[in-house]
Fold this protein.
Amino acid sequence: MSKGAVMQGMQMFFEQLHNVFEFVCVYYSTILGFCAIISIFVMGIIMALRSSAFAGHVFGRAALWCMLIPVLFCGKLRAYFETRVGVRTIFRWYSFLSEHRWICAVYMAGIIAFAALLIYRRVRLKRLISFMTDSEDHLSVYPVKVFAGKASSFCLGCFKPVIVVPDSLQGAERGVVIKHEETHIRLGHLWILLAYDILRTLLWPNVLLHLGVRYLKRDLEDICDLVTIQRNNIDTGFYGRVILDCAKDMSDSGRKIGYESGMSFTTDDNYKALRKRLEQIVRERAYNPKAVLGGTVILVMVVCAAIGFIKANSYKRTNDMGPVCSMCYTGDLDSIFVDDDQTIVTYYDDEYISINAKALLEQYPEAKSGDGWFYFSVGGYYKIPGIGGSVSWGELNAKDINESIIIIPNHSDIDIFERLIMWL
């Protein structure tokens, strides 16, 4: 193979790779942008309900955050393109991206940058933990590390959880804090934080998601307080004093390694929020574990039903264009005819295209005495309206038109890059 052929092949490869990259930017920034717009309204509902109707319900406030889960499946709703409200509101985002493609690259760059920042914080925290000593006086089912000095306690690691406590805590106080962090781990709060970080990374333009982190952590802290006290039969007065002492130590030292990394549930709240938490600890009454479990099952069923409803009213991964054919004639390239009622292209499959020559010449009468070429584009797919591709084509020389029905080969341009786009 000559050097020129190799260079040409490399050029074609990188051009196709660029096309895939451009598609990924445009497609995902479009559908994630739709999700981000929807999430603004959902966050407004969550914040309004948690401070009103659900203000006195610990588990209810936390359950409200599950409303964000179906949002990630709202990117391909038919309502954006097929309803008057969708066209007048959210469809504007699609039109804006169509006119300013560079916004797509900015959106994807924002996702990469935000994800890199979160990963860097976690890696840095793990390195810091690796230099800490193991706790020997308070054993736990999870590894316990001791931080030299005063700092906020926290837990880290979804797969291999680790608990970190400051050495300023001793005796029964340290035992309570360890029990508290164990509850966070057992209730899956670390996984919830990870899921929320992924959500706000994908939908990063929605500032409300970033501001909502502290409120999510407050709600998880309230649940953790309630469950820790009841499961371990801890006196609420003593538990409240431990929480207050930890907050005071953290404030005095200024060391908030867990908070800065995003892994501490002890958020950097003001006095008002801390007082509200302590008041809730004192006045909280015992909960019914069976009722909470039943409510959780119902919540999961509702979320799954919402996702199923959204998927049923959304575009599929690939959608058939149907019996639509576009054609052009080299003798009149400015005239492109779309045959959507199968007048000219009467039938096509994976191998052949059937053409009504009489109808074709009626559309392009100049071809009767010409020697140009007809090009047909048939079939194709779309991910959402306006984003997709035509994957097969045929050609016909005007000189070969000598009968009413003509059968020509159907060529497919589907390659590995096209199949990758169809799969995404």
Summary: The longest helix spans residues 3-50.
